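Lab notebook, bench 4. Still working through the backlog of constructs that have no structural model yet. Next entry is a single chain of 607 residues. Request: give me the structure tokens for it.
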Amino acid sequence: MAFKKTLILSLILLLNLGLKAQEVRHTFTLGDSAFLLDGKPFQMISGEMHYPRVPREAWRARMKMAKAMGLNTIGTYVFWNLHEPQKGKFDFTGNNDVAEFVKIAKEEGLWVILRPSPYVCAEWEFGGYPYWLQNEKGLIVRSKEEKYLKEYETYIKEVGKQLAPLQVNHGGNILMVQIENEYGSYGSDKEYLAINQRLFKEAGFDGLLYTCDPPAAIVDGHLPGLLPAINGIDDVAKVKKMISDNHGGKGPYYIAEWYPAWFDWWGTVHHTIPAERYTGRLDSVLSAGLSINMYMFHGGTTRGFMNGANYDDSHPYEPQISSYDYDAPLDEAGNATHKFMLFRSVIAKHLPAGQTLPPVPAAKPTIAISDIKLNRSAGLLDILPKPVLNKVPLTFEELNQDYGFVLYHTTIAGGKTGTLELNELRDYAIIIVNDKRVGVLDRRHNQNSIKLALPKGKVKLDILVENLGRINFGPYLLKNKKGITENVMFDGKEVYNWAMYILPFKQVSNITYTNKKVADAPVIRKGTFQLSKVGDTYLDMSHWGKGVVWINGHNLGRYWSIGPQQTLYVPVEWLKKGNNDIVVLELLDGDKNTLNSTKTPVLNKLQ
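Model written out:
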């Protein structure tokens, strides 16, 4: 018995020693011209990749690709609206398990730059803020306002519980943590930035903190004492001057966002930039010993309803597309591009002596699926939940709804022609009279009114409003409520007595299909398809109108025939041999009931 106890104690001791050996604590500090990892100069060659834009099952494979291109670090934002979708309810599970993302990076030999701002921009809904902040009366984001700071503190402490133990000084692989995000493009309150720093420290982020800003905003956006990283330029002399001018005449020199390409929004051309325009610039930055973070190394996909939008006084409302391919070195599906190979060749020249790059994993197999039949259907107007009744229309926020759609229903007296006006529509409305679609209004084109000729008698008026994505950048962050945000007028008179139906489409497993014909109103169609082998594929939505697709319960994102995106990426990880379910919410063309998939994406076709 004594021998058994001794053996067990010895095993426990060995296990503890093993765990301690794994938790080697590092130091990561600022030298005068370079970062110092354990006292030795360290050049960060980093690429941005966001955990929610990649299926969790594929995180490791993408990180292997990062290593194969020569990256030693991964950068990621942390997204408040994912982790606290409703006030006080936190979620760090599944695809939201950011701690697991960081741990996998460590296992793959990658350091991490963490950006929990909590404002992220990132072409992400509301710049990462949860919608419910707008229901807190008087709350002002990115400010010293008391309610905002209270919610911020609660959130960042939850993030700290997940991630602070993974900093290098605690045996993890997080090198550095960013406070705020390009704040100088928004404000200049140094007291507010100092509060950010304090909150991060109180949340356990006791390692190296930094700020990042574009050149024009670096003076306003950095906090004295922290490293002021720079975004969007790669002229070595300018980078060094701008950072040292704001950092006591010293470095290290870090380009926190280096853009080898750009993102897309609906109705405009797909952005691509030839790799050859960037190889020389990458070479000069690395030759000069600067550290760099490519935004993006791998964009992935903005699934569900999480895309953001741009808007200011100089250009119209611009909601971003579902693909976040970004013309990045790693494409939307995680395969190496021509840009990847050229950048890899540049990075290979700058490796420490004796180090070589691992081979590039082969492109993943793709499949094409033909003639997928969607033979079950349900008219949207036939499956409505219990309504909320109110004299005037309520916003999404007043209905405690985050994303998706709201159907506004009323009856009005017919027998006349007049203009229907939706004041401050956000963002896209389908107008339905007596169950027939009669027109659409689109905020992108500043459309808020339509002429209607109503039949005699009592007329059913339904207005289906889609949240196309809250603004994620600029001065209008505080004007982000969705739905019919003011009132509805017809023929010069205000329309009252509304029934509002909440349609967030968080899941589609509970829909009752009736199979009755629906041609002129939004419809949900369901089908199944059989696979004998699985692979990545791309649903061809170019012949459909506008809507959302789910495969095996996963929301793939929005499609819209206007382009430039005409396909929806389906990751192999979400397909299975045998039966697969597909559900399509089609807003404009109720007759469609078949679709195909292709082996290649179409991201550059305007219709």
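Notes after review: The chain has three domains: 40-348, 372-377+511-598, 384-503. Residues 263 and 326 are 5 Å apart (CA to CA). Flag for follow-up if needed.
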